[in-house]
Amino acid sequence: MRDLTYFVAVSMDGFIAGPAGEFDSFLVEGDHAVDIWSRYGGTAPTDLAVAGGLSVADGPFDTVLMGWNTYAVALPALPSPYRHLRQIVFTRDHEAPQGATGVEFTDRDPVEVVRDLKAEDGGGIWLCGGGALAASLADEIDRLALKLNPVLFGDGIRLFGDRPYHPAALEPLGVTAYESGVVLAEYARS
């Protein structure tokens, strides 16, 4: 059975983006970058990875899930951002933009989609955002990998959106602190 991993950058105060979707305060360079890429290779948009000389082959994931707002960040420049992965975008209100070849758009229940994906053969499933989608999939997430960045946003898109109070225990797998100030914290469902 395939695992769903929520691998995402997050601020110290629990936001994955600012109020208007800003994420440019997250550190992309530093001693953390190479090590995290070695663990989670293939988690950059195809064109950006190739331009940076990074291989998108042999990463832990073969499928990426995202909500419309996460997907739309790169529009119109990158209508098919992760061409090296199977791309699934959850939306009820938007049509596929021009050039979005290789991207599946769905209005299906995310839990049903994830359960169907887990039953298929293949590699890992990466949930790359957003917060509302993560909230709806919280009980389906098998692993959580947080790139905790040394910044405070104050407001924005929460790691798990507006998820109602529902405690769920996670088992720590490891914590790696880098001189850049980024901390990679990894957990699995207990």
Set out the fold topology.
Elements: E1 4-11, E2 15-17, H1 31-39, H2 46-51, E3 61-67, H3 68-72, E4 86-90, E5 103-106, H4 110-119, E6 124-129, H5 131-137, E7 143-149, E8 157-158, E9 170-177, E10 183-189
Parallel strand pairs: 1-6, 1-7, 3-4, 3-6, 4-5
Antiparallel strand pairs: 2-8, 7-10, 9-10
Description:
With 190 residues, the protein is α/β, with parallel strands linked by helices. The protein has a single domain (4-189), classed as Dihydrofolate Reductase, subunit A (3-Layer(aba) Sandwich), CATH 3.40.430. Helix content is 19%, strand content 30%. It is built from five helices and ten strands; from the N terminus they run E-E-H-H-E-H-E-E-H-E-H-E-E-E-E. It has helices at residues 31-39, 46-51, 68-72, 110-119, 131-137; strands at 4-11, 15-17, 61-67, 86-90, 103-106, 124-129, 143-149, 157-158, 170-177, 183-189. The strands form two sheets. It has an eight-stranded mixed sheet. Strands 2-8 form a two-stranded antiparallel ribbon. A hairpin with a 5-residue loop joins strand 9 (170-177) and strand 10 (183-189). The protein starts with a strand and ends with a strand. The mean pLDDT is 95.
